[in-house]
Structure formats: C-alpha cells, structure tokens
Amino acid sequence: MKKQLIIALAFSISALSFAQKKELKTAEKAIKNNNYAEAKAAISQAEGLMSAMDTKSKAKFYYVKGQVLYANGKGSMADIDAAIESLGKVEGAYVAEIKQLKQRMFSGVLTTGNEAYESKDYSKASKYFEKAYRITEVDTLFLYYAASTAVSEKEYDRALVLYEELKDLNYTGIEKQYFATDKESGKEVVFDKATRDLYVKAKSHIKPGERLSESKKPEIVKNVALIYVNKGDNEKAIAAMKEARAESPDDIGLILNEANVHYKMGNTEEFKNLLKRATELDPENAELQYNLGVIASESKDIEGAKKYYTKAMELDPNYINAYINMSALVLGEEAALIEEMNGLGTSKADDKRYDELRAERQNIYKNAIPYLTKALEIDSESINAAQTLMNIYSVLGETEKFKVLKEKVDALIADE
Fold first, then answer.
1. More confident position, 163 or 32
2. Where are the domains of the chain?
3. Which strand ranges, in their side-by-side order, compose the sheet holding 188-191?
4. Average pLDDT of span 367-382
5. What values do phi and psi take at 121, rounded to 5?
6. Closest Cα to residue 234, out of 254, 261, 257, 255?
7. What is the Cα–Cα distance from 325 to 233, expressed in whole angstroms?
8. CA-CA distance, 331 to 302, in Å (whole number)?
9. Residues 376, 398: Cα–Cα separation, whole Å
C-alpha cells in the first residue's frame, strides 16, 4: 500500500513538471512569433505549477515571464514594473540574456521618454525617464531627468520624492566633459571623447580640452526648498532653504525665496536682513529695491520707502508697482491734513488754516499725478492707477481730464 502511494506521488510530480515545461515552451514559441497574448496565457498556466519547479525551472520561468510582460516594448508601465521585478528573481542563470533584455528595455523606455519630452508631454516623459533608471539602477542621470520634468509639469509631490531619492544617493551629476572649438563659428562644443577626437583629427575643431561639469546638487536642494514653499510647508521650506544656501551662499534667487517665506511667516526682521544681503550682492536689482521699499513702508519709514521706490524706478523705468506704491505714499500724506481740517472750527483763524490745508492737500494730489500717469503709460489697463487719477482730477476740478479718465475706467470695468 505504501509502495503504491509513493509511485502515485512520483507520477503526479512528474506530470506537473512536464506540464510546466510545456507551458514555458509554449510561451517561448509565442514570444518568437510576437504573440504576447498567447504567451501571457501560457506563462499564467505555468505560474500555477510553481510548486513543482526546481531552481533551474524557476529561473527560466522568471526570465520568460519578464520577456512576456515587457512584450517587446508594448507592455504597460505596470507590466514593465512587473517585468523588472520578475527578472530580479532569476538566480544563477540567464545573466547575459537578462543583461541584453534589460538593455532593450532601457533603450525602448528611453526612446518613449524622449519622444514624450519632445512633444512637451512632461508628465509622461518623467515617468519613462524614471523607468529607464529603475531598469538598471545605474545611471542616476535619468532619475534626475525624471525629477526635473516632473517639476516642469508641476507634479511637485512626485518631484519631491525623486529629488529626495537623489539626495539620499548623494547624486551630484558631475561628469567629465570633452570639448573643442568649432573653427568656423568660433564656438566651443561639448562632445563625447571619441567624437571630439575625430573632429580635432579632421581639423574642423581646435583647442581640445576636458573639464568636470558643475554639480547639480545645489539645483536639487534648491528645487526641494521651492517645492516646500509651493506646498505651503514653511518650516520645511526654511530648513531646505538653509541647506540650499549652504551649497550656494550667493544665489540671489535662493535668498529672495527664503526672504519671501520669512515674510509669509511674519518674520519681518529676517526678511529685511535677507533682502539687504541680496541688495549687497546685486545693487542694480530693481525688484530688491522695490521690496525694501515695501518693508520700509510697512515699518512707517516713509522717507526710506520713497528712497527705495525712487531707486527702483531709476534702475527700471518700467517697474509699474514702484510708481503705484510711490503714489500711494504721497497720497497717504493727506490723512493727517484731513484729520486736522475736520477738527477746525468756524473762526477766521480756522478758516484761514482750512484754506492753507486745502492748498497743501491739492499739492499732494499734484505730486501724485506724475507717478500715476507713468503707471498708465506702462500699463494702459491698470484700473487701480486709472481710478485713482480720475478721482484726483475730480477733486482738483480738472473736468476734461476727469471725463477722459472716467470713460477709460468705465471701459476697463466693462471688459472685466
């Protein structure tokens, strides 16, 4: 009785082994004929017989499954992921075949990614660039491309994950560059070494040389910081900004972005210090002068604010916000006059003082006119500037100018 049981069991295992080998052969044949639907069906049948497979058969199964899922480039992104996973389970066999298959997968995925990038489908390009890296996990340049294109598509959460991975890998992107100068154009061109040497030998290029490219690490930490800013995570943004500035202490863009985060958080003093630092690095930057004007204005330093706005106008005569803010500062001076006028009595002395204050108020309006007029020259559709100027002409009794501005304001409101 025991002997019969042993024979029956052996027969059963033999039958299973035969069946899985048959399914694997069917899958291989279907692959050769590019019939991946049939191949998938066969590999699915073989997977149900895994318990009967020895190590050698399992290695073959996982290798064939990887081919089936990739489907010569026709597989979905999920299929490619599964194919990579399956090939990773192959032990001690098909080393050369897997290397060749992964190279085909890499080339196919990269081609699709490049095509998507050329057509400006950055979301798709990012996913395929990442996949190109996942296939071999050797060339981190494609992980960097994946992160960069995700930013272009404003897929910030995805980009953040990829950038953090690059940071963990200590990716710098530093590589040796081979260059030579084109004799005809006089421009320096970067090549791979073999091409550079060939062109130099052909004498179409001169002055060959080599150098290391700049590190991409500052850009990576900077983008991480900017993503946190975009997400409104101020605390992480500040921490990331400090890390980014440690890499590039004189990057004005970083200083300004950190300053803006501090401003949003109400850290006015830190905001002011950072702007002053940026101004030291770039004294000809109109935007910096304007922002310093804003700070001075909020700090009730009116004369200081006027000085900064004037400097911004000198550096950039078309900086419209400087003109509008300057006009606001000028017009703000009437508040004290109005308060005093409203507190006067009916005596002759009060009447005289009232007339003096009214003249001062009109001078304030006249002083504001040039700034608002210039603002409208820069942007003829600025409702803010047009309405303010219209009201000034009304108070000053300049009827014709008032009518012109009123028509303009009405037209602008109608177009909104």
1. 163
2. 15-93, 176-212, 318-416
3. 188-191, 176-182, 205-212
4. 91
5. -90, 75
6. 261
7. 30
8. 12
9. 18
SS3 content of the chain, % helix, strand, coil (to 5): 75, 5, 20
DSSP at 191? E
Kindly report which listed range (21-35, 233-247, 352-366) carries the lowest average pLDDT score.
21-35
Of the CA atoms within 13 Å of residue 118, those in its CB half-sphere come to 6
Is residue 257 within 8 A of residue 225, CB to CB? The reply is yes
Q: How confident is the model at residue 15 (pLDDT cuts 50, 70, 90)?
A: very low
Tell me how far apart the alpha carbons of residues 122 and 135 are, in angstroms, rounded to a whole number: 20
Position 6 scores a pLDDT of 39
Mean pLDDT of the chain: 85
Q: Exposed, middle or buried, 254 (CB in 10 Å: 0-12/13-18/19+)? A: buried
pLDDT the model gives residue 252 = 80
Residue showing tokens 């073989």: 46
Residue 19 has what pLDDT? Answer: 54
Residue with tokens 């409101």: 413
| Torsion angle of C-alpha atoms 403, 409, 414, 415, degrees rounded to 10 | 130
Top-level CATH class of 318-416? mainly alpha
Distance separating alpha carbons of residues 64 and 42, to the nearest angstrom: 10
Give the angle subtended at the CA of 41 by the CAs of 36 and 45, to the nearest 5°: 140
Per mean pLDDT, which range of 15-24, 281-290, 294-303 is the poorest? 15-24
Task: Find the DSSP H helices in 137-233.
Answer: 141-152, 156-168, 193-201, 217-231
Measure the CA–CA gap between 326 and 328, rounded to whole angstroms: 5
Candidates 268, 292, 162, 143; CA nearest to 224 is 162
Structure tokens at 376: 């409208």
Q: Which residues pair with 210 in a beta bridge?
A: 178
Structure tokens of 116? 């998507």
Under DSSP, the state recorded for 170 is: T
Residues 109/132, Cβ–Cβ less than 8 Å: yes
Q: Would strands 176-182 and 205-212 be described as parallel, antiparallel, or unpaired? A: antiparallel
State how far the Cα of 194 lies from the Cα of 128, in Å rounded to an integer: 28
Which tokens go with 21? 């080998």
Three-class SS of 307-329? HHHHHHHHHCCCCHHHHHHHHHH
pLDDT tens for 172-187 read: 888 889 999 999 999 9
Whether the per-residue pLDDT at 395 is higher than 70: the answer is: yes
